[in-house]
């Protein structure tokens, strides 16, 4: 039940857990914002204006504190004296410290609080804070647009990348892990960019602005305030280095767990039928435990940043309060300036704390970004020719000329294979599992590129054609049916979106879909769920055959297309195929030899080589590999042995 299918599935190993290269990945993620550089510039301007206003406000608010304190102290002094006279009187009374403090204040002895001046100051502060909030809101609005556009482009790039990836990638990587990169990881990137850019930008600007204001008020106190910054940076760096590897493991394990779940749910019936629920549950528990451990360590270690920074910030606050109080008592600073400085010191610590807290989110987001970038950096299929060739006629003449191909460099599969399929002929490909039958048609479709030799379609080397042109000439019906959520009409028309109603019904009639559609309540408008659960397996196969017929290909590929239908339906499909073989080459991969008796050419493959080819009667007469296959199915082991 592996989620990986194809010959390269065995080559796939466990998810990579290499350490995250944080710096380059973070810069590459930020580089995704470049198309919106003008909007980013506006965000910077708005953020700077908001921070400047927020930084200036405490200084002005400190003036309000001075007005209150001056009024309280002035009320205690005798009226009618000047400030100098009041200071001299205090010194004469032995209150030198109080006299020093009063001398540095703007007091009028005998006068209380100037509420008019206080009101004007508070009004100014209110307007400043409102303006800062407005700028901050507009900045957040613009940034939200930028981030969502960036993530939209990233999703589009991933979607386009998936269509450019070779089939080899999907054969060697679990689908659940790929889905996790496209959904979980991109969502995590969106959350990270949205939350961190705004906070990080505001925090950095706040640190710069607050530091400038603190230096303006008191260089000595500013030196005390920044004394703990190197310790904060050191603590954050050390903790971040320890948590990085756990965030990488967390998202890698998330992808592996998704692959496990997708695999188990897809094969739920098989798991139940063989009674392997316990083993599947044990595998889930193991992956779940790995995710728990990596997630716990990532969050726990990174969560140590905030407590460490808060502790250092509290030490900083105590130092500023003590030194500031001593300077007020000595008269070298006003109480309002100390109050403003203490507020600045708390504000100075807050953005540092926010930056420390964001390291948690940033590491998680960059770990996801690295997984998405790894997908975007995967090798793509070779590009189409600049001036592609195109066969003039659509006859369906296919030639294999000394074709060699191998999935692994050290393991040959197809060597020097030559084969010709004439227009209108049915070519059946038979052989044991792993013989290279499906590989042969994959090479025709250019899902894989040949290592040497060439394949010609109507005389044109298919490598000189565009893939779209090549595949538009080929209709393919696989053993594993695929229907999307939509009506039966829409599913049939998938191969030819511009088809008329008459053409759709004709294809349905030729593939015998029309026989069961009329028994459904809504007919062709019956909605099929994404898993096709409301139609039988045989009916799903007939719909996919109708889809291929509607596209009117010059080449028809049926890869075990009748394996899911009953014997009667199988005969109907054979009749429909025969009617459509006129001027159309058909490649039929079949294990049930009853479906290919009337083939014009039967090719028997073993280990990538054609060991026999001919008609049904010719191959039976040779009593070779085909004869043994035929006997194993229709004569029985006992008679075959005789």
From TrEMBL:
It is found in: Cell membrane. The keyword DNA-binding does not apply. Keywords: ATP-binding, Membrane, Nucleotide-binding, Transmembrane, Transmembrane helix, Transport. Its main location: membrane. InterPro entries: AAA+_ATPase, ABC1_TM_dom, ABC1_TM_sf, ABC_transporter-like_ATP-bd, ABC_transporter-like_CS, P-loop_NTPase, Type_1_exporter. Signal peptide: none annotated. Residues 1-20 are annotated as: Disordered. Residues 1-15 have a biased composition (Low complexity). Residues 398-632 form the ABC transporter domain. The keyword NADP does not apply. SMART domains: AAA. One of its GO terms (molecular function) is ATP hydrolysis activity. SUPFAM superfamilies: ABC transporter transmembrane region, P-loop containing nucleoside triphosphate hydrolases. It is a multi-pass membrane protein. Residues 42-364 form the ABC transmembrane type-1 domain. GO terms for cellular component: plasma membrane. Belongs to the ABC transporter superfamily. Lipid exporter (TC 3.A.1.106) family. PANTHER family: ATP-BINDING CASSETTE SUB-FAMILY B MEMBER 10, MITOCHONDRIAL, ATP-DEPENDENT PERMEASE MDL1, MITOCHONDRIAL. ABC transporter involved in fatty acid import. Transmembrane domains (TMD) form a pore in the membrane and the ATP-binding domain (NBD) is responsible for energy generation. This is Fatty acid ABC transporter ATP-binding/permease protein.
């Amino acid at each position: 039940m592996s989620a990986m299918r194809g010959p390269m599935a065995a080559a796939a190993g466990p998810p990579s857990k290499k350490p995250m290269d944080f710096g380059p990945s973070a810069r590459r993620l930020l580089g995704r914002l470049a198309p919106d550089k003008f909007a980013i510039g506006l965000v910077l301007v708005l953020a700077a204006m908001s921070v400047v206003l927020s930084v200036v406000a405490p200084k002005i608010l400190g003036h309000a504190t001075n007005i209150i304190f001056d009024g309280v102290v002035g009320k205690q002094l005798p009226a009618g004296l000047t400030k100098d006279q009041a200071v001299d009187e205090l010194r004469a009374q032995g209150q030198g410290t109080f006299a020093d403090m009063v001398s540095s204040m703007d007091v009028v002895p005998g006068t209380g609080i100037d509420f008019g001046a206080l009101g004007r100051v508070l009004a100014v502060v209110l307007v400043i804070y409102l303006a800062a909030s407005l700028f901050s809101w507009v900045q957040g609005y613009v940034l939200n647009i930028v981030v969502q556009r960036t993530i939209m482009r990233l999703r589009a790039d991933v979607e386009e990348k998936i269509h450019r990836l070779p089939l080899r990638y999907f054969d060697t990587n679990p689908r659940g892990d790929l889905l996790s990169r496209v959904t979980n990881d991109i969502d995590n990137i969106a959350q990270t960019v949205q939350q961190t850019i705004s906070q990080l930008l505001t925090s950095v600007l706040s640190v710069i602005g607050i530091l400038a204001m603190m230096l303006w008020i008191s260089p000595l106190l500013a030196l005390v305030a920044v004394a703990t910054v190197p310790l904060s940076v050191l603590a954050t760096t050390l903790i971040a280095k320890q948590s990085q590897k756990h965030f990488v493991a967390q998202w890698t394990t998330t992808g592996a767990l998704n692959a496990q779940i997708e695999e188990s749910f897809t094969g739920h019936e098989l798991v139940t039928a063989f009674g392997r629920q316990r083993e599947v549950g044990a595998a889930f528990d193991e992956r779940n435990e790995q995710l728990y451990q990596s997630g716990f360590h990532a969050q726990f270690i990174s969560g140590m940043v905030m407590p460490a920074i808060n502790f250092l910030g509290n030490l900083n606050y105590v130092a500023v309060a003590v030194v500031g109080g001593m300077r007020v008592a000595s008269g070298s600073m006003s109480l309002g300036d100390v109050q403003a400085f203490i507020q600045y010191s708390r504000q100075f610590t807050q953005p540092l704390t926010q930056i420390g807290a964001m390291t948690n989110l940033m590491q998680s987001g960059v770990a996801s970004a690295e997984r998405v970038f790894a997908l975007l950096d995967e090798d793509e299929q070779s590009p189409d020719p600049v001036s592609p060739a195109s066969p003039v006629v659509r006859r369906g003449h296919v030639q294999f000329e000394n074709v060699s191909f191998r999935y692994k460099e050290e393991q040959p599969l197809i060597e020097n294979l030559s084969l010709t399929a004439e227009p209108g002929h049915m070519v059946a490909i038979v052989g044991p599992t792993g013989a290279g039958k499906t590989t042969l048609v994959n090479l025709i479709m250019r899902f894989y590129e040949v290592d040497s030799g060439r394949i010609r379609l109507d005389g044109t080397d298919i490598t000189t054609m565009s893939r779209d042109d090549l595949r538009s000439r080929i209709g393919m019906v696989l053993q594993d049916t695929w229907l999307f959520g939509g009506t039966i009409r829409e599913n049939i028309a998938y191969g030819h979106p511009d088809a008329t109603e008459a053409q759709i019904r004709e294809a349905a009639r030729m593939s015998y879909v029309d026989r069961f559609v009329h028994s459904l309540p809504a007919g062709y408008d019956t909605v099929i769920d994404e898993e096709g659960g409301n139609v039988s397996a045989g009916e799903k196969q007939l719909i996919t055959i109708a889809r291929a017929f509607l596209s009117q290909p010059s080449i028809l590929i049926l890869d075990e297309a009748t394996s899911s239908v009953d014997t009667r339906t199988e005969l109907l499909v054979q009749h429909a195929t025969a009617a459509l073989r006129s001027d159309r080459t058909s490649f039929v991969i079949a294990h049930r030899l009853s479906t290919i008796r009337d083939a014009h050419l039967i090719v028997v493959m073993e280990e990538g080589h054609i060991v026999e080819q001919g008609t049904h009667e010719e191959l039976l007469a040779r009593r070779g590999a085909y004869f043994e296959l035929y006997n194993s199915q229709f004569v029985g082991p006992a008679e075959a042995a005789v």
